Amino acid sequence: MIDAANAAIRYHPESFDTTRHKLMGRHAAGEGFLKGFLRHGGVETLHCYAPTKDIAGQFQRLAAGFGSQLPVRWLNEGDAASPATPGTLYLPDPGIAAAAWRRRAHGQRLYSITGVTHTTASAGAMDLIASLLSAPVQAWDALICTSTVVRDTVEQVLYQQQDYLAARMGAAHFVRPQLPIIPLGVDTDAFQPGTERRAAARAALRLGEGDIAVLFVGRLSFHAKAHPLPMYLGLERAAQALARNGGKKLHLIQVGWFANDFIETGFRQGAATFCPSVNCVFLDGRKADIRQRGWQAADIFTSLSDNFQETFGLTPIEAMAAGLPGVVTDWNGYRDTIRDGIDGIRLPTLIPRGGLGADFADRHAAGLDSYDVYCGQSSQFVAVDPNAAARAYLALIEDADLRRRMGEAARQRAVEVFDWAVVIRQYQALWRELAERRAASSESAGLSAGQPSNPARIDPFIAFESYAADVLGADHLVAAAPGSDGARLQLLLQSPIIAYMKPMAPDTDDCAKILGDLQRRGMLSVGDILAGFPEIRRNRIERGLVWLAKLGLVVIRPPANQQLLQSGDQ
Length: 570
Description:
The structure is a single chain. It is built from 23 helices and 17 strands. It is of the alpha/beta class. The chain folds into three domains: 8-184 and 425-440, 3-Layer(aba) Sandwich (Rossmann fold); 189-418, Rossmann fold, CATH 3.40.50; 468-569, no CATH class. The strands form four sheets. The chain has a six-stranded parallel β-sheet with strand order 3-2-1-4-5-6, with helices on both faces. A six-stranded parallel β-sheet has the order 9-8-7-10-11-12, with helices on both faces. A three-stranded antiparallel β-sheet has the order 16-15-17. Helix 10 (314-321) packs across helix 15 (400-418), helix 12 runs antiparallel to helix 13 and helix 15 (400-418) packs parallel to helix 16 (420-440). The longest helix is centred in the first third of the chain and has 22 residues, at 148-169.
């Protein structure tokens, strides 16, 4: 029985690993979703869609490490029909087109596919979105957009691709996946502010009683995350204003990581040059305890994101969960999270008009500029006013009551809107809705008999059939080579030049049975051999006969009538 509130989770360890050296937002989002689903999903079984049983075992150990005692069922990713068991396949990325092509071979109503957006700025992400219109994606599939602006971008790409396909091929009917907006989530309990924890964290960072700590958490990248100049200039102007009034000491705690020495030097020199009046501290944000210390010690959170690769922004909702007021840019997903004047202050952003950036897109498409260069250069034309930043920082620094009110409002909003308990319910409501659509909606691009499920991924034995002198058929005759048996096969499989085929080879017990039958009964036709096995295993065994011939274990001869024709020609 299908549980519409459950899903097969495609598990590749990289997508859920926050211990990696190059920690990215999508890794934190993947781990957060899994933890949230384990805690709040209310399901009886976890379905792990993975390429091997060993990787499914890693998933089980990871889930146990997160406190789950639920049984894990491995769904073999090699069998694209296997997600039919729960009825939904969850992908931690936007690659639903590729999954839809694979599903088409088995039946498009077997299950729904849901993916989720991360960055939409890269050429790869844009291609994945554009491919949705030509792939066999159905109305019961969904690409989850984490923010309003992400959906705007996705729809813009789809509209442009739709116009092109209409002009190029006269296409008039397009099926899109659903594009629901479901935010990323946060475990608000893990960020619960506490007086004792705050005191310990501030003592560890040597913050004085009346000092103000402004916190940035995230990847420290001026070209691909947030350029620090408006933050540095704004805090410097705020610090100078405080100094004129004999005010508080100001600290900027930057918790993150640098991709290389060049970037680290740029940040450290930039901090020393542009905000010398502020005590700037850099901490390694790849360490969970360090991140937690920053959240507990801070008075104000800031993230002046100005980069096109950003889509949602996980750290602002983590700051809200920690009860911190935020000074952020009015940019991308931040607009959906921090309410201006309620949970914090959003600073206006400005970009050039459309049509002035085609050269950026062209250079990136041509491979002249890497994704990093594309993001770094195009985002330099996003303006954030440092004077507005200074005013926002100063307003919160000088007004403890304002900080408290905004922090409390932020915490309440995080619990009510962004806690994983709330977000997981939205996922499960979506999965139920998609199941209803799957039962009621018409199918697009159904597979006809004899068609390849993906015209660009043809069966190699069809695509390259003309390469061979002959094609194995049911009437071909098979004989055992002298000395061939199961033991000989096992000996051959010990060689690395043969053993790599095990995953795609027929079962060794089936091979041993075939060899034994041929030794006892003599030459048999392919059809006779296949008749001795269940239908579900016959395809693999049929092609396996050619493999056994390659190994020299059997000899395959043309059908008897073909042999007579050949001898007559001679």
